[in-house]
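Attaching the record inline, Q. Sequence:
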Amino acid sequence: MTEPAPVTDWRGTVALLLASSTGGVGQHVRSLARGLTAAGASVLVCGPAATQEQFDFTGVGARFTPVEIPASPTPADARAVAALRRALAAERVDVLHAHGLRAGLVAVLARPAAPLVVTWHNAVLAGGLRGGVSRLVERVVARGVRVALGASADLVERAAALGATDARLAPVAAPALPAPRRRRAAVRAEFGVGPDQPLVLSVGRLHPQKRYDVLIDAAARWRSRTPAPVVVVAGSGPAYLPLAARISAARAPVTLLGHRTDVADLLAGADLALVTSDWEARQLFAQEAMRAGVPLVATAVGGLPELVGDAAVLVPPGDVDAVDAAVCGLLDDAAGRADLGRRGAERAATWPGEADTLAQLGALYAELAPAPGADGGPTEPGRDGHAPSTGRR
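Structure, as predicted:
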């Protein structure tokens, strides 16, 4: 992958904090760590050890300190808060940037001396007790941050409504995929797809938010098509077993591939990309599909309508009939698929890229932590002209 060109002259130290991640948030933090270090900034990534194993933050020039943040708020958060305080006390940190509400809560409770930025990556969809706790966490984080960033406009509005005094839009650009390593025919042969048989692809975490139950129920109807499409879903997650059982019961032509690192290859072999989520900000797979020129059917939720415009087919969430009609309509219209794929690629070319994301965040960090001696900048004594962080405000 081509290294991003330096796009910011900010040379301070930023700590990037994340909770458990197997997908978009981890990829985003890795992209930031790579770009910021390439531009000359100092980057410390804090998060669960498993995220370092998967995303290799140190491999792109960052330092890594384990901070084990549980998936849900528990008394174990106290250990995460203590670990984060130790990490912040060990070296000068100019800005602490947490990604997601779980990381944001730990960061707020740690009371850092450095300005705190939190990016909202996801909406709270759960109901009941869990949803109530999550909405309380939202409020605590919104009121405890210096700047709240939202990956989509609805998240910015949510943070402001909850009390954030400074809420801004910060679109998350999907990291550029590498070139496909395999030819289209080889990818399709892996799944036994015939020359005239459609291959429908979805990529994402196997989680109830993604509503793969809707995809499966729609796909079950496609068995009667000639030729019947092959549907593959790349991703891992807690919903694997119930989804596998649903596929079996419905006799749906769907294969769960598990975690894949060859999304570029999968897109090269696909005829159609499908997103059935109840909510997304700027879903990375939707961006990847449109960049690759693969026609996209997606739900009209969260930030997806503003992302895709009229360059994808949008359907209501949770609507099996609408998904069925949209997919079948495109499968029956080769010219329409080609036109949609072309318009999707053209739309994708207008989106901010990784360099734009880095430039925006570099400017924000410079605003919050100007260089020593700059107008309005810190002048306290200490290493490199900065006072060391104590980990407490």
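The two ends are 39 Å apart (CA to CA). The longest strand covers residues 13-18.

More tomorrow.
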